[in-house]
């Protein structure tokens, strides 16, 4: 048995036998690797027991969303004051930049103000365009409104736009329509007055300084013609016409006067010469012939007043030469037609005994 006092420092006795372990001492002195320790035996692992089931999560229930309401309209208050307009801010530095620009070269100035940039002009007055022959023949009436009255003091003329060509044409058309309506009114009034008033008993014609036509019937013309179709200048007077449109039909149909008919030519006669005249002379004009023909057709004896009294809407129309060409061709006759304004037919002949060869009353000359 080894004494513990004989052991070197650092020498440990063997735990099992209590003897000296040289290997352990040698490793302690020279740093050898220690002997690996033997791990103690371990117990066999115990198998895990059954895991208890965890809590069951509740079923998910989706919440019901509330109904979505449309957003309310945004009503902006109406401004009571006008919106303020902010002027754009002036860009600083423009004036300075303008002053620092380089001056234009002499070539640019010569190009702008050189001799080739100027041209001579004619200082003579430009003549006004001549007036057209048509306007010159019509005279100055209707054209004097463009030049003013000439009483100004040399200042600016009145700001009044001249009438255009279309406006002038419309004015002339309106004037022509007014003249036609006036003639129609005179014609209607002239045809109704003799029928309503009748010949005045004991009336004497008024003496007139102007020549007065006298009624005359051409004895060489025979009428009425038998029923059939004729031109207007082939009628002799007394024919009943069906249909009847107006006094200016080119062709007519003659029917028996015992049958209903639209109109009747009660008289065809030659326009009389003025007192003291030997020839008819040049064409007197449509207005004068229209007035003269109406006077002759309104003479006593042209219409059978007793037969015409059966009707209350008798209309008298006159036809005559309407152009210088017809007048120069020898047409001198006037025609007197009767019809009804209601359009109802006539059933009897209204031809009178014939106009009396006396002077017709005319209005005294003006002045």
Automatic annotation (TrEMBL):
Q: Does the keyword Membrane apply?
A: yes
The signal peptide, as residue positions, is none
Please note every region of biased composition (Pro residues).
Answer: 36-70
Annotated segments matching region Disordered: 1-85, 118-160
**Gly residues composition bias: residue spans:** 139-155
Per UniProt, the keywords (alphabetical) are: Membrane, Transmembrane, Transmembrane helix
Q: Which residues cross the membrane?
A: 169-189
Coiled-coil segments, which residues?
none
Extent of Basic and acidic residues compositional bias: 1-10
Protein name stated in the entry: Septum formation-related domain-containing protein
User: Which species?
Assistant: Microcella frigidaquae
């Amino acid at each position: 048995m080894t004494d513990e006092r004989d052991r070197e420092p650092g020498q440990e006795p063997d735990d099992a036998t209590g003897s000296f372990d040289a290997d352990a001492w040698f490793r302690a002195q020279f740093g050898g690797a220690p002997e690996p320790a033997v791990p103690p035996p371990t117990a066999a692992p115990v198998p895990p027991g059954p895991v208890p089931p965890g809590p069951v999560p509740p079923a998910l229930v989706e919440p019901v969303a509330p109904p979505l309401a449309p957003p309310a309209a945004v009503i902006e208050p109406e401004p009571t004051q006008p919106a303020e307009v902010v002027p754009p801010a002036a860009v600083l530095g423009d004036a300075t930049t303008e002053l620092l620009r380089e001056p234009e070269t002499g070539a640019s100035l010569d190009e702008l103000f050189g001799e080739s940039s100027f041209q001579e002009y004619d200082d003579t007055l430009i003549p006004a365009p001549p007036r057209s022959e048509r306007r010159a023949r019509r005279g100055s009436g209707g054209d004097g409104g463009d030049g003013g009255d000439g009483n100004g003091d040399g200042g600016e003329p009145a700001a009044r736009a001249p009438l255009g060509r279309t406006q002038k044409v419309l004015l002339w058309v309106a004037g022509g329509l007014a003249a036609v309506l006036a003639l129609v009114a005179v014609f209607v009034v002239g045809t109704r007055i003799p029928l309503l008033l009748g010949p005045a008993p004991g009336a004497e014609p008024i003496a007139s300084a102007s020549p007065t036509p006298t009624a005359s019937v051409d004895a060489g013309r025979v009428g009425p013609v038998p029923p059939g179709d004729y031109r207007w200048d082939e009628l002799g007077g007394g024919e009943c016409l069906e249909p009847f449109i107006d006094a200016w039909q080119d062709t007519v149909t003659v029917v028996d006067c015992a049958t209903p008919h639209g109109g009747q030519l009660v008289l065809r006669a030659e326009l009389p010469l003025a007192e003291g005249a030997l020839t008819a002379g040049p064409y007197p004009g449509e207005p004068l012939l229209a007035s003269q023909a109406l006077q002759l057709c309104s003479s006593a004896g042209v219409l059978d007043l007793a037969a015409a009294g059966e009707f209350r809407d008798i209309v008298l129309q006159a036809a005559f030469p309407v152009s210088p060409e017809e007048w120069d061709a020898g047409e001198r006759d006037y025609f007197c037609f009767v019809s009804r304004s209601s359009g109802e037919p006539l059933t009897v002949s209204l031809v009178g005994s014939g106009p009396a060869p006396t002077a017709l009353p005319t209005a005294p000359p003006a002045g």
